[in-house]
Design goal:
Blueprint (H helix, E strand, L loop, with lengths): L2 E8 L1 H4 L7 E12 L2 E11 H6 L4 H10 L3 H6 L2 E9 L7 H14 L2 H4 L12 H6 L2 H11 L4 E6 L14 E7 L2 E3 L2 E8 L28 H8 L6 H9 L1 H12 L10 H37 L4 H9 L1 H15 L1 H5 L10 H34 L1 H27 L9 H25 L3 H15 L1 H15 L1 H28 L2 E4 L4 E4 L4 H51 L2 H9 L5 E17 L6 E3 L4 E3 L5 E15 L2 H5 L12 H13 L22 H16 L1
Helix pairs in contact: 3-8, 3-11, 12-26, 14-20, 16-19, 16-20, 17-18, 17-19, 18-21, 18-22, 19-20, 20-22, 21-22
Length: 715
């Protein structure tokens, strides 16, 4: 049975001409998912001269590089030496380059010839591959990966007619578990190496953990299909591709000795000193703010059991929740800034997500302060005119309430109401409105100062604190409407409950509170007579109570909707991913969602049979591979591309938590509660994000935390 091999080849190796020498070492990952299918992910190539000049051994370098990879990739595959990529000297277009490489190898030494192993004598072992491999490479690959897995690629551009696929190597043969494989199909996939800040690959959406669960249950056969083992380990392959740049950087850092402090330039040393001084200054300033916030928190906690504190906390509940959120954002910035998992930085995808998460708090805070200044400064400069407008609006609102009550005391819309009950409810409402209007005359003298205080609050604390205080001020200014609505709703709901109970009496039913159901019950004649005497006046007085209840319910619901709308705006400001939106506008490639392959062409390859005879002329420090009988195997060349998320798919998942509690059932409950006169639960503060737990650390430890987080950013 034919085997299938997918060779993932970096695109820059096609254009950068990284094969100036006749032999390059391939480093990357072997990914196996079935006995007949395997993937070879080439991360980068390295010259043998660099490996021979490195101080640590190759096995130590590979082990350290593998140890810096993400844990998920480390569990599924191993970073190792994949094999060799050589220039085919039989190619007509590369003969001159091969002659140049012979002279270059002769001048640089006999590293390749001296390090070659002896020819294998067994039939299943390829003598050309064993003679080409450096002894240290062979040993490190076998000892690190566990078995003899080796590939030999040949760089021959004369066979490739497509300009885009020119430079794709030809797979000469494969050693898999010590056996030379000759019967296989090759799929060469050219990918552009991911880099941080540029692009990366991903099989799914960026915020897969934020996706909503499907409302429709999948069929049984779909669940069974997902349980089957996949024959393509694309998750591991894509993760390995995303780690290719980091693996190359770590490998070169370990192979090439670091520069000492004396070799650093003056400009680099100056930047290091400036970074340390800046870190100390910001850490000290943050510690001062931390001490001030801790002092305020201790004072509030000490006064939390007093009656005045509880009353103020209930009145200004929305502002208090928003201030807690703002304080936690200020306190937790070193926690968000530091890297919790250093190994995850090796994967570009994980590094991108971690960076967006770290900078989300800063972007939200910056936009909040910016919007607060855009609203606060005009409000501060036009406070007098705005104060006059507010006074006129409150006067007009009081006039609207008075005229509405007077209208209800007459014959509203032609309905004949009970005059006595309408006069009682109307006079009571008018007196409450008049008392509240008289109190607001004194508030009008300090309205200008209140507006200036709100403007300063928006400039310093941001737009969300300003909007939260506006909500609390609206609730405080319409407190008389809320009180009247609750009192009238109490009368209305009592009438509705009494009428419902009397109706059950007439129908011969009784409510069973233990079983929560209606049971049949035989009432006496006296009970029916008393019920009739009570039912008649209640049903006749219900229209009068209903019109007052409807009037104040509409007014109270309108006020609540305005407060909920402002609260939704606050939640949207907190939930908007400003960093993601800005990065999407600048570079959409940083938000991949799925991959696709562009087929460039296919061609036939030849692979060695078992009875291969190759020769190596070590006296001339060059390698000659003779032509021999080969089997044809198909080669497919394609380019790897990514699909990208739209701006809606990037931002919409973050807004699901804003209206998480709003559903059809909740709207039905609210509407049903309004109809039966049930007291509506206040939604004030429920749509805001929950504040994080209060941080309580020693001052010195907090300073060290801030300092270390900033120092890590300059590394």
């Amino acid at each position: 049975m034919r085997r299938h091999c997918r060779l993932w080849w970096p695109k820059q190796l096609l254009t950068d001409q990284e094969l100036p020498s006749p032999c390059r070492v391939l480093l990357g990952w072997f990914v196996t998912c079935s006995p007949l299918t395997f993937d070879i992910v080439v991360a980068f190539t390295c010259s043998e001269v660099l490996l021979s000049s490195s101080n640590p051994s190759l096995e130590d370098i590979i082990h350290d590089t593998h140890g810096n990879m993400p844990t998920m990739l480390e569990d599924k595959s191993v970073f190792s030496v994949l094999g060799l990529c050589i220039v085919d000297p039989t190619s007509n277009g590369l003969i001159a380059e091969a002659e140049y490489d012979k002279r270059k190898l002769s001048d640089s030494g006999n590293n390749l010839a001296e390090g070659c192993t002896s020819l294998y004598k067994k039939k299943n072992e390829c003598r050309s591959c064993s003679s080409l491999q450096h002894e240290s490479l062979r040993k490190s690959s076998q000892s690190f990966f566990g078995k003899s897995n080796w590939v030999l690629l040949m760089f021959d551009s004369t066979e490739q007619n497509d300009a885009r696929s020119r430079g794709v190597p030809r797979l000469h043969h494969i050693h898999w578990n010590g056996v030379t494989m000759s019967d296989y199909d090759v799929h060469v996939i050219v990918y552009e190496t991911p880099s941080y800040g540029d692009h990366h690959f991903s099989l799914g959406n960026l915020g897969s953990n934020e996706e909503a669960k499907p409302s429709i249950k999948n069929p049984k056969w779909v669940d069974e299909l997902h349980k089957k083992k996949q024959f393509v380990e694309l998750d591991t392959v894509i993760m390995a591709i995303n780690c290719a740049t980091s693996a190359k950087r770590i490998f070169e850092t370990l192979a090439v000795p670091r520069r000492s402090l004396r070799q650093l330039s003056i400009f680099s040393m100056f930047l290091i000193i400036i970074g340390h001084l800046f870190s100390k200054f910001i850490a000290s300033f943050s510690t001062v703010v931390y001490i001030a916030l801790q002092f305020c928190q201790a004072h509030v906690k000490y006064k939390s059991e007093s009656w005045m504190h509880m009353t103020l906390a209930n009145i200004f509940r929305t502002a208090w929740i928003n201030i807690q959120i703002k304080c936690c954002q200020i306190l937790y910035w070193p926690i968000f800034l530091q890297d919790k998992d250093l190994r995850s930085r090796s994967c570009v995808e994980y590094a991108e997500k971690a960076a967006m998460h770290r900078h989300s708090m800063w972007s939200t805070l910056f936009v909040d302060i910016l919007l607060g200044n855009l609203v606060g400064w005009p409000l501060l400069h036009n406070s007098e005119s705005i104060c006059l407008s507010i006074v006129n609006f409150t006067h007009g609102f009081s006039t609207f309430l008075r005229s509405g009550c007077v209208w209800l005391m007459g014959d509203p819309a032609g309905f004949k109401l009970n005059a006595e009950l309408a006069n009682v409810l109307g006079i009571f409402s008018l007196n409450a409105i008049q008392i509240w209007s008289t109190l607001w005359i004194f508030v009008g003298f300090i309205t200008n100062y209140i507006i200036q205080g709100l403007a300063i609050l928006g400039i310093i604390c941001g737009f969300t604190a300003f909007a939260a205080m506006i909500i609390d001020m609206i609730v405080l200014a319409t407190l008389h409407v809320s009180i009247l609505h609750r009192l009238i709703s109490l009368v209305y709901s009592s009438q509705i409950q009494a009428l419902a109970a009397l109706w059950r009496l007439f129908s011969g039913r009784k409510w069973n509170p233990l079983r929560q159901r209606l049971d049949s019950f035989d009432y006496t004649v006296k009970q029916h007579i008393v019920g009739s005497l009570l039912f008649t006046p209640l049903i006749l007085l219900l229209p009068t109570t209903s019109v007052f209840y409807i009037f104040f319910s509409i007014t109270e619901t309108t006020i609540n909707l305005i407060c909920v709308l402002i609260e939704v705006i606050i939640s949207v400001i907190h939930a908007t991913p400003y960093v993601k939106i800005l990065l999407w506008l600048v570079r959409p490639q940083r938000f991949p969602s799925g991959i696709w392959f562009e087929i460039c062409g296919s061609r036939s390859n030849v692979s060695p049979e078992d009875g291969v005879t190759d020769e190596m002329n070590s006296s001339k420090e060059s390698v000659h591979l003779k032509d021999f009988n080969r089997k044809k195997s198909s080669i497919l060349v394609s380019f790897l591309h990514s699909n990208y998320l739209s701006i809606g798919k990037v931002s919409l998942p973050h807004y699901r938590s804003v209206l998480l509690g709003v559903s059809g059932s909740s709207i039905y409950k609210v509407a049903y509660g309004i109809v039966i006169g049930k007291r509506m639960q206040s939604l004030r503060g429920t749509l805001l994000p929950s504040p994080m737990p209060w941080m309580s650390l020693p001052y010195k430890e907090y300073w060290c935390l801030c300092h270390d987080s900033l120092i890590a950013c300059f590394r």
